[in-house]
Amino acid sequence: MGIWFKKEEPEVHQGVEMFQQSDLDSVIQRFPDALWKPYLESAAEYVKSRLPEVLKQHLQDYEKDKENSVMSYQTILEQQILSIDREMLEKLTVSYDEAGTTCLIALLSDKELTVANVGDSRGVLCDKDGNAIPLSHDHKPYQLKERKRIKRAGGFISFNGSWRVQGILAMSRSLGDYPLKNLNVVIPDPDILTFDLDKLQPEFMILASDGLWDAFSNEEAVRFIKERLDEPHFGAKSIVLQSFYRGCPDNITVMVVKFRNSSKTDEQ
């Protein structure tokens, strides 16, 4: 997961908290911030080390000649995510490394928020009225669109604790995972959505791996964080621990982004 800012003085505060049983021991917390939820660590490390700098360079080039460019934030995000996946597949195939990772990116630019997602990490925003606004949609094998695509590719899904592609992977899109990519049953294509911040007037957003969403609904997570924005990590640490206490066995990574211009509710 990650967030990129297009201003030198970003209009947000960030809180990051992780509980990962794979003991991923480093988190980038400077511009550009990036967290990646791995189910095998080498894939996440590769994406974390390569994608932020590549995206930063292409976005800076785009900003220099934005008016004459045929590109957009959406096309840049899509092209670079797909490019990094091709790089990974070349390297991982040679070493027979079956690693894979999700990817969730939030790009804040002027009054727009652009979110790109591959896999089952998820973004949720709290608007001015306290509503939970989904910023992304999980890529799960049981979804009708994904199930049809997998079947057309000659694959199948089966239930083994959760619905899995070829009985193996519990998501239908990812970066890496070369054996399933070779079968064309798992793809790296991101879904990209854009949101009008003037309209939403957001208070905060949550970017988190599926460990959080196994324990909390979107609405529950927003209510939980809203009551803890005064904590050092804007409630990120508390919600990670609460997910763990609820019995979540998966990696739990949470980034809470608080918008500076959000109006604070009365505490009376």
UniProtKB/TrEMBL annotation:
It is an enzyme of class 3 (hydrolase). SUPFAM superfamilies: PP2C-like. Residues 1-259 form the PPM-type phosphatase domain. The gene is PPM1L. InterPro entries: PP2C, PPM-type-like_dom_sf, PPM-type_phosphatase-like_dom. It comes from Gallus gallus (Chicken). One of its GO terms (cellular component) is membrane. Belongs to the PP2C family. This is Protein phosphatase 1L.
